[in-house]
C-alpha cells in the first residue's frame, strides 16, 4: 500500500500532465478551426480552375494536349505520401502509413515504385521499408502555395523526364472531427472532368492559344490539388490531436479521481485508528 | 447599360467580388487588356502587373503576380497566383523584396545558378508588380 505522501505526489504529477493535455487540446481546437477555414477559402479557386481547364481541353482537342494530360503505359508509379511533422495526433499517421504500405504492396508486383514523403512522421515510419526518393520535412502546418511548389516541381520534372508514368497521392481527408479517412488519388496524368460536348468552345477567344494557356495552367492545377490535400492534412492533424488530447485529459481526470479516493480512504483509516488509540487510552485511564 | 462582375481568387482566398464594374484593365501576356461590358468570351494568361477596375469615376488597383483571366457572360474571373489590394501593400516591404531580388539575381548570375536565376527573376517581377501597383493607385 502506498503512503499518503506518495499518493499526493502521484496526484500532483497526473494533474500537471492533465494541464498540459488540456492546453494542447485547446490549442488544437483553435488551429483546427483555422485549418478548416483555409480549406473553405481554397474552394473558389479550385472550382474556377477546374472549369477553365475543361473549356481549354475542349478547345485544344485531344491530340494536342500537353504530355501531363496524356496517359501513357504505366511501368513506374510514384507515391506522394502526406504526413504530419509532429506526433500526438492519435492514429492519423499510422493509418496513412498503413494505407501506403498496402497500396505499395498491391502495386509493386506490376510496376516499379518510388516514394516521396512529406512530413517527419512519414519519413520515420517509411524509411526502413522503402528507399525514399525525396523527403520534405520543413513544410509548415499552415502551408502556403509557395511551400508546396518544390514538391510539385519535383514530381512534374520526374514525370516529364520519364522517371515515372503516374503519381498517386495519399493523404488524410478531413471528414469530420472524429473521422479522418486516408485517401488515395491519382495526381497525374491529370484526371480530366467528363467534358460535355454542348459547351460553346468555338466562341471563346484564347490568348495566346488554348494549348499554351493550358500548359501554363496545368502546373497551377496540380499545385492547387496538392495544396488542398495539405490543408486537409492540417485540418486532420489538428482534429486528431484535439480528440487524442481530450481523451488524455479525461483519462487523467479519472485517474486523479481514483487516486483521491484511495488517498482519502487511507487518510480516513489513519484518523480512525488514531481515534481508536486515543479513545482506548482514555478508557484505560478511566478504568484505572 | 450592362455591367461587369469581377471576381479575383487566389489559391489562399477570394480576394475580391465586385458587381457594377464598368471597365477592367489587366496585364495579359500579350499586352495590356481592357475589358468592357459585353466583351466576347475570352481566356488568357496574365503577366505580373496591375489589375485595375473602374466603376464610373472610381477605381481600385490590385497587384497580380501572374495568373489567368476568363471573361464569360459579363463575368470576369481572375485566377491570380497571388493578389493584393493596393492599400494592403507595404511599400517598404515591396522595396526591400525588390532589393533582395536584385542582390540574388547578381549572385546567381555570378555563380551561374540557373534555378536561382529563374527564382530571383520571378521574385523581382513580383516586387516590381507590387511597387507599380502602389504607384498607380497613388496617382489614381
What is the number of beta strands of chain B? Answer: 8
Strand percent estimate of chain A = 5-15%
How many structurally independent domains of chain A? 1
The CATH homology group name of the largest domain in chain B: F0F1 ATP synthase delta/epsilon subunit, N-terminal
How many DSSP helices of chain B? 2
Overall pLDDT of chain B = 87
CATH architecture of chain A: 3-Layer(aba) Sandwich
CATH class identity of chain A: Alpha Beta
- CATH fold assignment of chain A: Pyruvate Kinase, Chain: A, domain 1
Structural notes for this entry:
The complex is a heterodimer of chains A (288) and B (140). With 288 residues, chain A is an alpha/beta fold. Chain A has six helices and six strands, in the order ααβαβαβαβββα. In chain A, a hairpin with a 2-residue loop joins β4 and β5. The mean pLDDT of chain A is 87. Chain B has two domains: 4-86, ATP Synthase, domain 1 (Sandwich); 89-139. In chain B, strands 1, 2, 3, 4, 5, 6, 7 and 8 form an eight-stranded mixed β-sheet that branches. Chain B starts with a strand and ends with a helix. β6 of chain A pairs parallel with β5 (42-55) of chain B.
Any key phrases for this structure?
heterodimer; A: 288 residues; alpha/beta; Pyruvate Kinase, Chain: A, domain 1; five-stranded mixed β-sheet; 60% helix; elongated; B: 140 residues; 2 domains; eight-stranded mixed β-sheet; 46% strand
Fold blueprint:
The complex is a heterodimer of chains A (288) and B (140).
Chain A: H1 4-41, H2 43-60, E1 76-82, H3 92-107, E2 112-118, H4 120-126, E3 132-136, H5 145-161, E4 166-176, E5 179-188, E6 205-207, H6 210-287
Parallel strand pairs in A: 1-2, 1-4, 2-3
Antiparallel strand pairs in A: 4-5
Helix pairs in contact in A: 1-6, 2-6, 3-4, 5-6
Chain B: E1 4-10, E2 13-21, E3 23-28, E4 31-35, E5 42-55, E6 58-72, E7 75-80, E8 83-85, H1 91-111, H2 114-139
Parallel strand pairs in B: 1-7
Antiparallel strand pairs in B: 1-2, 3-4, 3-5, 5-6, 6-7, 6-8
Helix pairs in contact in B: 1-2
Amino acid at each position: 500500500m502506498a503512503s499518503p505522501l506518495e499518493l499526493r505526489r502521484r496526484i500532483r504529477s497526473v494533474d500537471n500532465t492533465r494541464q498540459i493535455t488540456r492546453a494542447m487540446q485547446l490549442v488544437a481546437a483553435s488551429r483546427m478551426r483555422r485549418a478548416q477555414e483555409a480549406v473553405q477559402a481554397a474552394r473558389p479557386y479550385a472550382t474556377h480552375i477546374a472549369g477553365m481547364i475543361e473549356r481549354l481541353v475542349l478547345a485544344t482537342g485531344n491530340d494536342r494536349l500537353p504530355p501531363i494530360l496524356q496517359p501513357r503505359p504505366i511501368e513506374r508509379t510514384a507515391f506522394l505520401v502526406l504526413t504530419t511533422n509532429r506526433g500526438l495526433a492519435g492514429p492519423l499517421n499510422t493509418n496513412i502509413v498503413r494505407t501506403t504500405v498496402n497500396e505499395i504492396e498491391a502495386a509493386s508486383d506490376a510496376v516499379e515504385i518510388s516514394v516521396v514523403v512529406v512530413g517527419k512522421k512519414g519519413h520515420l515510419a517509411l524509411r526502413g521499408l522503402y528507399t525514399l526518393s525525396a523527403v520534405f520535412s520543413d513544410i509548415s502546418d499552415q502551408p502556403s502555395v509557395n511551400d508546396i511548389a518544390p514538391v510539385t516541381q519535383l514530381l512534374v520534372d520526374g514525370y516529364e523526364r520519364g522517371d515515372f508514368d503516374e503519381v498517386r497521392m495519399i493523404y488524410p481527408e478531413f471528414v469530420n472531427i472524429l473521422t479522418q479517412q486516408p485517401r488515395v488519388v491519382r495526381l497525374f496524368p491529370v484526371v480530366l472532368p467528363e467534358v460535355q460536348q454542348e459547351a460553346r468552345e468555338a466562341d471563346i477567344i484564347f490568348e495566346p492559344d488554348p494549348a499554351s494557356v493550358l500548359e501554363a495552367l496545368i502546373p497551377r492545377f496540380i499545385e492547387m490539388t496538392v495544396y488542398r490535400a495539405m490543408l486537409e492534412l492540417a485540418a486532420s492533424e489538428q482534429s486528431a490531436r484535439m480528440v487524442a488530447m481530450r481523451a488524455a485529459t479525461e483519462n487523467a481526470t479519472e485517474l486523479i479521481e481514483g487516486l483521491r479516493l484511495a488517498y482519502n480512504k487511507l487518510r480516513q483509516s489513519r484518523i480512525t485508528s488514531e481515534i481508536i488509540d486515543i479513545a482506548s487510552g482514555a478508557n484505560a485511564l478511566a478504568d484505572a | 447599360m450592362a455591367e461587369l462582375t469581377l471576381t479575383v481568387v487566389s489559391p489562399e482566398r477570394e480576394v475580391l467580388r465586385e458587381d457594377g464594374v464598368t471597365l477592367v484593365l489587366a496585364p495579359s501576356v500579350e499586352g495590356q487588356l481592357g475589358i468592357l461590358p459585353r466583351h466576347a468570351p475570352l481566356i488568357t494568361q496574365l503577366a505580373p502587373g496591375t489589375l485595375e477596375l473602374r466603376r464610373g469615376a472610381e477605381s481600385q488597383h490590385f497587384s497580380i503576380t501572374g495568373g489567368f483571366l476568363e471573361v464569360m457572360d459579363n463575368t470576369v474571373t481572375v485566377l491570380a497566383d497571388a493578389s493584393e489590394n493596393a492599400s494592403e501593400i507595404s511599400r517598404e516591404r515591396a522595396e526591400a523584396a525588390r532589393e533582395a531580388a536584385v542582390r540574388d539575381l547578381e549572385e546567381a548570375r555570378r555563380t551561374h545558378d540557373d534555378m536561382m536565376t529563374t527564382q530571383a527573376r520571378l521574385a523581382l517581377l513580383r516586387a516590381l508588380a507590387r511597387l507599380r501597383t502602389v504607384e498607380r493607385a497613388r496617382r489614381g
